[in-house]
């Protein structure tokens, strides 16, 4: 039907020419501690993405408390969702410098601080800073490492592992909606946010579970044996692959030179420290500080070099046309999923369906079915005869159809059916890290997925306020769903066009050579 992941020319080619080599497999790859990483990522999705999907409860409380327009109030939720994803590329820099574990622990503390400070908000603009920015940045610092670590620990069952870990979004949306509704009813929204901030400190525990793989284990991934058919199919982007591969060699040589220079500096510091034992303690303390600063400088420069080359160097991720089309799709896609979660409570109230919705909320239907969608789509994608790319596209088509038909439904049963389809088809989120890794390879996954979730963040940032602004003008949500659905369709078209172009290019070249 469509091009498979190999046809499109994924993997940047930096391991396609490496020969097979007998290496003892690491028991933690696809097993062992890898399942603890899945558990950690699962809890992160509950506490971060699940909480954000339940913000419709707090959005109604803020509307009553501050008496502001729906468009302005919706900025609080959209800022938190958007910034969580927009900071992805910059979090990639943190990961390059200090690793996933430390980044996630710091992010957990920052997220909890944002929730707690928001409990003392005096106006909507205060929430922009505390909840939107502070909690949003903290969420981003935990979310990206949680996704990247699962990709590093799994090779064979990657789609299933990502599916299981990201089901935390569905569980979280269901649990956090009920929890926030209860807390707001019993204690008020301010105390509810304070309690949620205390709960968010568990993100630090999740970060502590993200034990990094040893360098040997990461290197050994290059020696995975690839079949001849995969090698032939991967030649679709051979030119860009060679460019990136050559750049990688040059960057490694530069890194070795820098490391040699820095080692000389550190050795000189150590000799000076040893020779100066008879000196005062103050001088010794200064030398230790100098040594620590030198080591920190080496780490920062090395991490920044990797981060910079991925975005702006000759090995830039933007040389992959399919990846660029993927970014364009991400700019339009996420808002279509976020808008229903933020505005469905208001839509239900507008249709006088609150009594039925209170028994079983529509957002909970999306959340529950979302869980099954992620697992089932992950299992289907791992089948050898099924292309992840095709499953991903079919799920997108189903979701955009549901978004366009949602405004036509005005009864609880019809809305419930459409919401169930939205929940199942949006299970493709579990395939996004898999598709991204297939596009760029494991080495570039952190930076590449950071770009994708950044584009999703822009979509989440602008979507809900746009829907609220349309409602303030027309007093209906219909047009916001229609416009976001059409933009979503444009992004899907970009995904369909680029694989066809990539497959055409080698054929055209071979025809020209035949004529010569």
Automatic annotation (TrEMBL):
Its membrane topology: Multi-pass membrane protein
Give the subcellular location.
Membrane
Query: InterPro entries, per this entry?
Result: MFS (IPR011701), MFS_dom (IPR020846), MFS_trans_sf (IPR036259), Proton-linked_MCT (IPR050327)
UniProt KW keywords? Membrane, Transmembrane, Transmembrane helix
- Name one molecular function that GO assigns to this entry: monocarboxylic acid transmembrane transporter activity
Annotated Gene Ontology cellular components are: membrane
- Which ranges carry the Major facilitator superfamily (MFS) profile domain? 37-503
PROSITE patterns the record matches: MFS
Spell out where the chain crosses the membrane.
33-55, 75-96, 103-121, 127-148, 160-180, 192-210, 322-344, 359-377, 389-409, 415-436, 448-467, 479-497
The UniProt record lists the keyword Transmembrane: yes
Q: Which PANTHER family match?
A: MONOCARBOXYLATE TRANSPORTER, MONOCARBOXYLATE TRANSPORTER 14
Designated name of the protein: MOT14 protein
